[in-house]
């Protein structure tokens, strides 16, 4: 078995090794559209409940749904997140880690083409803060922890 040194060819081959730019413009595009799941943990539910002035049970009943063994935020019939208001996310500062990790999701980082596809829909992609590869991978791990 051969040990691979840090900085091996496979590690250097990551297409975003030089980093990626992103700044949230609060455009709300990531909060609407096709149906999907925003996975939430019990800790996140508790924080969002407290921020909204509801009990954990009230928040869970009104804003969450069980999907097999996991919990996701509900969506409105048009695909909007249940937390989306006129000015954006009503609980932006308490939003779930999956939302905090956007656009640094595994599917979006699979290739440069996938990233460009997100860029076409999100005005903040390619602008603002330059995230290093290390920062991106930390954020990616955060978003996958739910």
Topology:
Layout: H1 9-12, E1 20-22, H2 42-52, H3 56-63, E2 64-67, E3 70-73, E4 84-85, E5 88-89, H4 97-101, H5 106-109, H6 112-121, E6 129-131, H7 133-144
Antiparallel strand pairs: 1-6, 2-3, 4-5
Helix pairs in contact: 2-3
Structure description:
The chain is α+β, with helices and mostly antiparallel strands and about 150 residues long. It has one domain. It has helices at about 10, 40-50, 55-65, 95-100, 105-110, 110-120, 135-145, and strands at about 20, 65, 70-75, 85, 90, 130. The chain has a two-stranded antiparallel ribbon with strand order 1-6. A two-stranded antiparallel ribbon has the order 2-3. A two-stranded antiparallel sheet has the order 4-5. The longest helix is centred in the C-terminal third of the chain and has 12 residues, at about 135-145. The radius of gyration is 17 Å and the shape is globular.
> In DSSP terms, counting alpha (H) and pi (I) runs of 4 or more, how many helices?
7
Give the averaged pLDDT, no decimals: 90
Shape: globular
Q: State the order of secondary-structure elements, H for helix, E for strand.
A: HEHHEEEEHHHEH
| Biggest sheet record | 2 strands, antiparallel
Strand order of the largest sheet: 1-6
How many E strands?
6
- Taking all Cα atoms into account, the compactness measure Rg is 17 Å
- Terminal CA distance reads 34 Å
- Percent strand equals 5-15%
Unreliable sequence segments: 1-9
How does the helix and strand content classify structurally? Answer: alpha+beta
The level of helicity is 25-40%
């Amino acid at each position: 078995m051969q040990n691979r040194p840090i900085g091996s060819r496979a590690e250097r081959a990551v297409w975003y090794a030089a980093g990626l730019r992103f700044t949230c413009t609060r455009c709300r595009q990531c909060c609407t559209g096709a149906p999907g799941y925003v996975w939430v943990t019990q800790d996140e539910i508790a924080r969002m409940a407290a921020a909204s002035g509801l009990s954990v049970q009230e928040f869970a009943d009104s804003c969450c749904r069980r999907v097999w063994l996991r919990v996701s935020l509900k969506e409105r019939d048009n695909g909007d997140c249940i937390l989306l208001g006129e000015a954006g996310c009503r609980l932006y500062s308490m939003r779930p880690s999956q939302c905090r990790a956007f656009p640094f999701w595994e599917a979006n980082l699979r290739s440069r083409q996938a990233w460009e596809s997100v860029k076409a829909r999100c005005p903040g992609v390619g602008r603002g803060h330059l995230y290093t590869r290390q920062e991106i991978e930390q954020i990616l791990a955060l978003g996958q922890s739910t």
